[in-house]
Amino acid sequence: MVLIQDSVYGVAQTADLVLAASGNHLTRNDGFLRAWSKKDGALVFEMKTPNNQEANTVAVQGKLAAVGTDAGGLLLIDLATATVLQTLQGHTGHVLSVIFDGNEIISGGGAADKTIRVWDKISGLETLRIDVGARVGCLAVHEDLLVAGLGDYTVRVFDPASDDPRHVLTEATDWVRAVAIDAQRMVSGSDDNKVRVYGVPSFQLVRVLEGHTDWVYSVALEGDRILSGSNDHTVRVWDARNGDALHVLHGHSDTVYSVSFLGSEIVSGSGDNSVRIWDAETGASTRVLDGTEAVRPIEEVLGATATTAAAKEALKAALANGDPAELGRCKLMVVGQGAAGKTSVVRSLLGMKPEPTHKSTVGVKLTRTDAESWEKSKNFDSGFERQAYRAAALRMAVQEEQTASEMQQTLPRRVSQGSFNPVFTAEVQVELVPEAEVARRFDIEEIEDMAGKTQSGQKIFFTIWDYAGQEVFYALHHIFLTREGGVFLIVFDMQELLIKQDQAVEYLSFWLNSVKLHAPTAPIIVVGTHYDEALVDANEVEEILVENLSIDENENIVTNPAGELSFFPIDNMSRAPGHASELRAAVEASASSLEAVSRKISLRWLKVLDDLLKLDCDHVPFGTVQELATKYHAGDQTDELLSFFHELGMLVYLRATNTLHGKVVLNPQWLLDKLSRVIADKIHVKQMRYNRELQNAGLKNDFTVLRKRGIATLSLLKFLWNDEEVDYLRKFMHETMLMSDWNFHEKSLPRNRQNESLFLVSSLLKNSRDRKLEQDIAKIQSGLTRVLDFSEFFLPDGVFARMLSLCAQYSGEVKKNKRAPQLAGDRAIVRFGLSVFALEQDDNKIWVRMAQDAHKPATALKTLVSIFRGARDAVFRDLPWELLLQSPSDDSVLVRYDDMADARRTEVAEVASVGVGNALVTDFEPFFEDGSLTEDENDTGTVGQASIPLAAGLKYHVFLSHPSQSWTSCLGCQETEGNLAEDAMKRGIRESKCYLLFLSKTVFSDAVKMELEAALREEKPILVVHESDPNRPGFAPFSAYIAAAPASSKHLFKENESMPFQRRLYLAEAFYKELISRIKKSPYRWGGREWDSRVQTDEFAQPGTMHRMHMLQKRLRYLGFWVALFATVFARSKLDGRTSSHIAAA
């Protein structure tokens, strides 16, 4: 206990404590932080600053205090333990102001420093530095607004995430020493003796409060009251609404340097070496504190009793065991026709002021909120801390009812879902948060407050995805509509429904079907806008919806009981506070019903997400997530946890292909904005067309070609994407079939870019028209014609465009007779070499008409069916469809392909046609000249014969690696007979030209390791093929193969050299050709000697004495396409009745 010997420069308060920072800039004989109990005034905490510098400012958050001192000192202190948790180093002069902002600390430096710095409270790292060029006397923060009072007589308003000031206020005529801010107003105090009040968020000066007769050192806000302290020794209380002075508080005998306002209590610190507590209602001084008070332990005030100890232990156990907890997250997807008012609906939900006009949404706009405040969230957090509190509180509640012997249960290996007893001991305990960090990061009081409360009351957090309504974006939207964890808002304009009924119903039908396709069980809330229009009758709208869309029969539609309607009418122009309350309630109730929202997931999952978000980057490789998950013993759940967070709209993780699987997008808005720079609507295209930077880059013509012909140059893509992650974004658009290679000459481009890489963005052609194309299609004499029929459901926007992309790319890969496709709108003429055909979309059907003189029309049709399946499976995997065949002898007759295939198999003469009548089976024989039209993954199609000579001493071209357990199990096969003994395997490798290793999840069995070692010892060329489909059980990230490989062979595995295994017919031919090419190029080795690849020997045509082809087929018959691959390459090619090549099969 030491008497305060000098000025109190900073004060702060909580519900239980008063804190004071004191010192003297001249004598430096008193640098202290003190705390008193509000209840009885007892001194409960006293610490001299560890750096022996004067304490200038203090802030408090729970049981943590931040103190700024002279000489750049900034300390984070645990009041409960009197421990300095962090010394934040960076300021080069006195720290005059410090505040807490969530998990951040913000500080301001004096005249020798002139900076504002933002620090991570947990790590102590500086995350942002703002050089303001003047003394920072004071700081205040509210949501995304950071306010600083400076020595250059200005107040500056910043976004805490950047260093660009939003506002610079210049009304003060002397130093600004104090600022405060809340949602309604901002207040400043300065050396011109005035207190100024500004409106928020406009920051327009509202009024000036005059009354102080000397410098104003401090201000504070509490509701409708303003507090100020001055060099005139007084504290004044003002009415913020009208500027009236409510109280003038006399008692201090020197400058009032600091004030704090909380509830009905005012705290002030003065140069008279004292702290005073005042009653805000009466203005009476209730207590004077000077350091001479009775002393008692701070634990008695903070409640650090046995309960606190139990809470700490519960938190420790919850973290170590990775307790399950409800995340309470939901994806709210807002869709509908353009200009229907979707963004205005979002603004209504968030309680924002109505805007009569605003710019249309580009692509997708993300906003975050919660179902309690319904305010736009400033930051996106993982929820880790919140759920750790809940898990610990639940442990405490249960522990009160269970004995220690009942608590020892074993956590199931997977802790991602299901109902668990919250008190258990995990098989493997993990340090999610270092013990030294727990005190800084967690407030034990929160656990105590939660203990005994149920989890059902926790609020839901929403990520709102506002999808642009312009048609050009529809092909993009389908990628990001998720199946689980989401609620859909389908927004329509009620006035337009009444005036343009057919068009409005068509759009509503499109979106209802789209939601049903992607999320068949998701709740759908239909919202009608423009309820403020006089002509709108909600009951009339209801009748139209029921009559035309049977909306009353859709079980997923959320009804509006209050209005007795199937939709929610809303007036987005209303300023009434509760005008969206019924819609909010419906959204919250719908979200609460979702299994994904209430699903219990492990804290380990949340810690992975928490660590990812702390990386503060837009995207990371899958391997980064895998490493973090493995660190927290959840490595085998990486796919599952990422898919879960993706479904909730928290990140983007697509698994359709290896490329998509390999990148995790942590900031979905980054990806959406990039894509929308290429796929843009007319309004934003106009802005880009007159962009000076575009013209300066010499890309104006390139942009015109993109918009008119859908063809993009690589230079243009680099410009639109700011030369950032161009390869990934291009691959993303390729894999989602928004883009394809355009391997044709483009005369409309500048000469210097006619030879660079070109790409087709087919969705941009949706509304284009080409009269010459229409005339050319009309001139085609139709040959074989087939129809992709989607009438059972509907044809989503984007299917036809994706087919065009794949057809154009496949056409461009043809080496001979290559000509550019003609594309426009819903029509196209494409050439696969000498196979010419027309594509046309007509309502819910896609017609494919081969020209009469087309080369191998049945083969081309087969390839087209494979291409369609690729387009469908990329985004529309559950889309139902039928393949129809048009009779070559009668254009009016259509037959279902499946019916015709069954008829041919059962050898019947006639089959029922679509509609009325029958058709002769023999009329359709030309469709089957190349076998089944629908065999995609089980037939390789036509591959050129391989004639690969073998050197002396070699019997086989390829030794195929031993199938791994995951490989065989994923294909549903049994163990087969015929396994070779070890010596036979080694001999087979020695007598083979090369060794082919198929990488799958558990590839490196003892047998494969032995084979690989033998192949390396014999110096055999090693060809590597890897599973490329992430949806197959045998798939693993390439990094996993490298990690699992024997040390002696890790150098062999490079993703860019391994061949991705292709099953689709339209992709398989290129795969086989590349594989044959690599086999041909592999050098012959025998006895350590390399032989010329052109050498032929008598061994070429000799069948193997050990591995005949029928044994290979028997051994590998269950491998589907893999058997077909080798059957095509090595079995179909015959010479004098003998196989011309052989494979040694382990």
From TrEMBL:
Ribosomal protein as a keyword of this entry, yes or no, is: no
Recorded superkingdom: Eukaryota
Keyword annotations of the record:
ATP-binding, Kinase, Nucleotide-binding, Repeat, Transferase, WD repeat
Query: What name goes with this protein?
Result: non-specific serine/threonine protein kinase
Write out the ranges of the repeats annotated as WD: 88-120, 209-248, 249-288
Taxonomic source organism = Hondaea fermentalgiana
Give a GO molecular function annotation for the protein. kinase activity
Q: Which Gene3D superfamilies does this one have?
A: P-loop containing nucleotide triphosphate hydrolases, Winged helix-like DNA-binding domain superfamily/Winged helix DNA-binding domain, YVTN repeat-like/Quinoprotein amine dehydrogenase
Swiss-Prot/TrEMBL catalytic activity: L-threonyl-[protein] + ATP = O-phospho-L-threonyl-[protein] + ADP + H(+); L-seryl-[protein] + ATP = O-phospho-L-seryl-[protein] + ADP + H(+)
* The Roc domain, residue ranges: 323-594
Q: What PROSITE patterns does its record include? A: ROC, WD_REPEATS_1, WD_REPEATS_2, WD_REPEATS_REGION
Does this UniProt record's set of keywords contain Calcium?
Answer: no
The cross-references to InterPro entries, in alphabetical order and at most eight, read: COR-A (IPR032171), P-loop_NTPase (IPR027417), ROC (IPR020859), WD40/YVTN_repeat-like_dom_sf (IPR015943), WD40_PAC1 (IPR020472), WD40_repeat_CS (IPR019775), WD40_repeat_dom_sf (IPR036322), WD40_rpt (IPR001680)
